Amino acid sequence: MKLLAIIPAYNEQDCIVETIRELDRVAPDVDILVINDGSTDGTGDLCRREGYNFLDLPVNVGLSSGFQAGMKYADRQGYDCAIQFDADGQHRPEYIKPLLEAMEQSGADIVIGSRFVTKKKDVSARMAGSALISFLIRLTTGKRLSDPTSGMRMYNRRAMAEFVKRYDFGPEPDTLANLIRKGFKVVEVQVEMRDRETGESYLSFSKSIMYMARAFVSILIVQWLR
């Protein structure tokens, strides 16, 4: 299938080149689109210098809007599926093939690269938040997801279409919950991820707190109003 890797990038000049080189080396059949989300460092200049296929957003619009732009591109260019892939090197490209195979074999609309299908979560505040989100999704949809906050997700054309036509959809757990309730099939595949070593995360500590709070409210309340 024709697959596009959408790589949101905000101030990732220290890691974007190595990330794309590894992706090209390990998964050469996967097309790449970098979303330079209003970076204030040299990310955009690197994309131009290296000749990457990229969207150069003039201001920082955030992960959801940036990813949605990538999904619109994938839809208009006729891709069969798209995968969200981190610019910071945390996601490992050798797992793209198993995710694609799982999508083809199971008929899933969305496949999540999960860290916790066969492994237990660490004891930490972040993992406690992940467990709470898993509980809320199961409470509202009946579906158990072990790693709903994983950013490594693959979407087929049916799922891509939702991001194209809906302004309020982002690559977030509440969107997963909403799509599951609408009958979309979601499966998980065990993957390993690396720790971020350089670059600037979308989620600072304060943003992480707000992220969890928004997810809680959206899954329990907002999704029912969509």
Summarize the structure.
This protein has 226 residues and is of the alpha/beta class. The chain has helices at 16-26, 43-50, 63-76, 96-106, 125-141, 157-165, 173-181, 205-220; strands spanning 3-9, 31-37, 54-57, 81-84, 110-114, 153-156, 186-190.
Radius of gyration, CA atoms, in whole angstroms: 17 Å
Dominant shape: globular
Number of individual domains: 1
What proportion strand?
15-25%
Just give the CATH class. Alpha Beta
Low-confidence stretches: none
Strands of the biggest beta sheet: in what spatial order? 3-2-1-4-6-5-7
Helix content: 40-55%
- How many angstroms does the end-to-end distance come to? 31 Å
CATH T-level topology: Spore Coat Polysaccharide Biosynthesis Protein SpsA, Chain A
CATH architecture: Alpha-Beta Complex
The CATH H-level homologous superfamily: Spore Coat Polysaccharide Biosynthesis Protein SpsA, Chain A
Average predicted local confidence, pLDDT: 91
- Main β-sheet description: 7 strands, mixed
Structural class: alpha/beta
Write a structural description.
There is one protein chain. The protein has about 230 residues and is an alpha/beta fold. It has a single domain (about 5-225), classed as Spore Coat Polysaccharide Biosynthesis Protein SpsA, Chain A (Alpha-Beta Complex). Helix content is about 40%, strand content about 15%. The chain has eight helices and seven strands, in the order βαβαβαβαβαβααβα. The chain has helices at about 15-25, 45-50, 65-75, 95-105, 125-140, 155-165, 175-180, 205-220, and strands at about 5-10, 30-35, 55, 80-85, 110-115, 155, 185-190. It has a seven-stranded mixed sheet, sandwiched between helices. Strand 1 (about 5-10), helix 1 and strand 2 (about 30-35) form a beta-alpha-beta unit. It is globular, with a radius of gyration of 17 Å. The chain starts with a strand and ends in a 6-residue tail after the last helix.
